[in-house]
């Protein structure tokens, strides 16, 4: 079937969907607040997705379209796939530190010569992405259909992505003609800029709508925990080496792993301090 089913609006489902696309090292978390403390809990944050109730009266103004040519933006032409498109808007604009997989790499390369509508059609015709999306099928009204007009009886929801790209923050909304630049940013302040824009939207709806949801694409906790455990084991190994102890199974330090190398270099030279260091490390 070439139809796109409605899927459940749940961070866990979105995380599994991202994995089904072939992306590694990313998961989705729901943010309870937009305070700095909340952001810091989940860093690194690669992008934000804002979910809100769509209103024809409030959703009417066109925004100035301004963006880098290399930014991947696709118009929304698929019914029932608003959340999936919001996820892809972030994933297809990630830096090289994240492996996005063969399917998304192919889609991104194919879309380079297309306009936003053409990219939307390419996404619609991607069998791999559609099958991954439909594998999480569930009848749920938490999604907007791009061709559906909201009525007083309908509750139609929409997802918009916010992502940093080449020194600017962009709002990516498939119902707009193109991306919207929110201004220049750094890695440290892009979340602040995106937050200000999201708060403006919430204020626009404040008189008649209080249901919003904010999701963040963050580093995979399991990957992060595994990396930290590996660092601990390598440090323990190097401490044992300094003490002349037997190392039963050596863990290789990768040449490009600057963080591990720096921590190994910082190990103390004094034997007593080294012994104290090995005692402070967790057991295998």
- What is the string of SSEs from the N terminus onward? HEHEHHHHEEEHEHHH
Oligomer: single chain
- Ranges where pLDDT stays below 50 over 5 or more residues in a row are 140-150
CA radius of gyration is 23 Å
The end-to-end distance, rounded to whole angstroms, is 49 Å
Q: What percentage of amino acids are in beta strands? A: 5-15%
Overview of the molecule:
This protein is an alpha+beta fold. The chain contains 10 helices and 6 strands. A hairpin with a 2-residue loop joins strand 3 (157-165) and strand 4. The longest helix is centred in the C-terminal third of the chain and has 22 residues, at 221-242.
Concise synopsis of the structure shown:
With 284 residues, the protein is α+β, with helices and mostly antiparallel strands.
Question: What attributes characterize this protein structure?
Answer:
six-stranded antiparallel beta sheet, globular, 284 residues, 6 strands
């Amino acid at each position: 079937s070439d139809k796109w089913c409605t899927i459940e609006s749940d961070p866990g489902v979105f995380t599994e969907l991202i994995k089904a696309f072939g992306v590694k090292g990313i998961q989705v978390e729901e943010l309870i607040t937009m305070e700095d403390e909340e952001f810091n809990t989940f860093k690194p944050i690669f992008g934000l997705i804002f979910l809100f109730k769509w209103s024809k009266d409030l959703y009417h103004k066109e925004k100035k379209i301004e963006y880098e040519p290399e930014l991947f933006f696709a118009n929304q032409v698929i019914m029932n796939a608003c959340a999936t498109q919001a996820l892809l808007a972030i994933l297809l604009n990630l830096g090289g530190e994240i492996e996005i997989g063969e399917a998304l790499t192919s889609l991104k390369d194919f879309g380079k010569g297309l306009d936003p509508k053409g990219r939307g059609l390419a996404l619609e015709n991607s069998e791999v992405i559609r099958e991954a999306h439909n594998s999480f099928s569930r009848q749920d009204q938490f999604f907007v259909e791009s061709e559906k007009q909201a009525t007083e009886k309908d509750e139609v929801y929409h997802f918009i992505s916010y992502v940093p790209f080449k020194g600017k923050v962009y709002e990516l909304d498939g119902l707009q003609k193109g991306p919207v630049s929110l201004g220049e940013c750094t890695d440290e302040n892009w979340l602040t800029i995106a937050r200000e824009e999201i708060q403006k939207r919430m204020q626009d709806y404040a008189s008649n709508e209080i249901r919003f949801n904010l999701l963040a694409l963050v580093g995979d906790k399991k990957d992060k925990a595994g990396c930290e455990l590996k660092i601990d084991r390598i440090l323990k190994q190097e401490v044992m080496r300094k003490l002349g102890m037997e190392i039963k199974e050596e863990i290789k330090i990768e040449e490009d792993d600057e963080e591990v190398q720096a921590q190994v270099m910082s190990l103390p030279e004094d034997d007593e301090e080294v012994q104290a260091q090995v005692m402070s490390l967790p057991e295998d």
